[in-house]
Amino acid sequence: YQNYHLRAEFKWGENKFEPRLNFLRDNGILYHCTGEYGAFWNVWMRAPEMQVQETDMGDFYALAGVAMDIRSRKSGRADARGLWAQIYDPSVAIQTIGNVPGAEGRCRRILDLERSHGEWNSLELICFEDTAVHVVNGQVVMVLRNSRVVNQSGETLQSLQRGKIQFQSEGAEAYYRRIQIMPIESIPDRFKAKVKADADPSR
């Protein structure tokens, strides 16, 4: 798939399974998936991920050799591993996020817009050329640019603008419905202003 608008509705079930009984419920939408299955954790293909995890819907994760450029800043606190996560902030400078030496492999969404447990959430993913937009319950939570495959030194091997889509499941009961995917020839009108502002080179 290339140049598309993906929409789906999502909610959590109740059951959790090993080995993640004591972790947050975690899923994701992996896009521009390329290469072999098993490149990440012996399961997933190489891909950018729109995270679908409790309290973290809309985050970005880089899986197995990808990177993107995101306006982001360090969070005010370290996570459970002692790492300082980046947070999307359209008012600050662009940072490289991904599998690049010295870079974080994750960027957190700007807002937590997830609805209460068991309620349906609207998820949208817009991919146009090398730009992606993560949308949760109607609001843009992240704009990502320059999607690419990188080597272990962080050098760009190729632009990443197309690939398979994987709906990830990591040991938590989850439901998707009304999955739609539509080809696009530009960023949809209701998101253009956000994407244009994010691209302003004067910031």
Main sheet: strands, sense, barrel: 14 strands, mixed
Distance between the termini: 32 Å
Unreliable runs: none
Number of helices: 1
- Overall number of strands: 14
Mean pLDDT, all residues = 91
**Rg (CA only):** 16 Å
Structural class: mainly beta
Give the proportion of residues in helices. Answer: under 10%
Succession of helices and strands? EEEEEEEEEEEEEEH
What does the overall shape look like? globular
SS strand fraction = over 45%
List keywords for this structure.
14 strands, mainly beta, 1 helix, 14-stranded mixed β-sheet, single chain, 203 residues
Written account of the structure:
The protein is mainly β and 203 residues long. Helix content is 5%, strand content 52%. The protein has 1 helix and 14 strands, in the order ββββββββββββββα. The chain has one helix at residues 189-199; strands at residues 4-16, 26-33, 47-53, 60-63, 66-78, 84-88, 94-98, 106-108, 121-128, 131-136, 139-150, 156-159, 164-169, 172-183. Strands 1, 2, 3, 4, 5, 6, 7, 8, 9, 10, 11, 12, 13 and 14 form a 14-stranded mixed β-sheet that branches. The longest helix is centred in the last third of the chain and has 11 residues, at 189-199. The radius of gyration is 16 Å and the shape is globular. The relative contact order is 0.27. The model has no long low-confidence stretch (mean pLDDT 91).
